[in-house]
Amino acid sequence: MTRRHQTVWRSGLAAALAAWMALALTGCGQKEVTGKLDETAKDAGSAQVRIDGAEIAFKSTILLEVQEQGYDLSTSPDFTQPLSEEDRMDAGGALLPVYMGRDGQVVARLGCANTGNGELPTLEARVKSFEVFYGPCPADVEAPQNAKPRVAIGGVDFTGQDAEEVASLLEEKAGSVTSGEGPSPSQYTVGGCMYTFSFTAGGAVNRVWVQGL
């Protein structure tokens, strides 16, 4: 084989290898389970949410820290009632849902509480739950738009997954499981968190709600 033929043969082999690797990574067009539960979900009892560069850890992250990561916070989904430094919250109180957004679009809905012994600024309330919508926002949100971000909860991105894929990730780790049929919700308790899923009529996840217990 001449040097020129060797070069051509090696180029062809490299191209074939690259194509094979690309096919293997895409799984011939089938959906792949994305990620696995990390230690924040399994052991610490406080699932950590990563969303477009921001991080939220249940029971420790306060609303001010969410705001400082570049997100708008409001008690209304159209962001006409933003939280301010003057807002106060009574001891032991729970806050109405707080909408986390950017550029006027809803990114997530947060549940928050004052876990201290006295009144404190609302922006110091701790995040207790996180709800993300993969499809249109539900009717009770009445938001103009949903940002549809890519979100990892406890190390897992549930985008596009169906009930079977969700079960394969959570069922073995769950202390308790309540599963629905078709578009009905499925619920898993993992560590110190409860995951509730709802699905579209086509079977894909359209909502994930995670609550720190």
TrEMBL record:
What UniProt keywords apply to this chain's record, in alphabetical order? Signal
Q: Does Signal count among this protein's keywords?
A: yes
- Annotated signal sequence is 1-24
Q: By what name is this protein known?
A: Lipoprotein
| Annotated organism of origin | Bittarella massiliensis
Phylogenetic classification of the source organism:
Bacteria, Bacillati, Bacillota, Clostridia, Eubacteriales
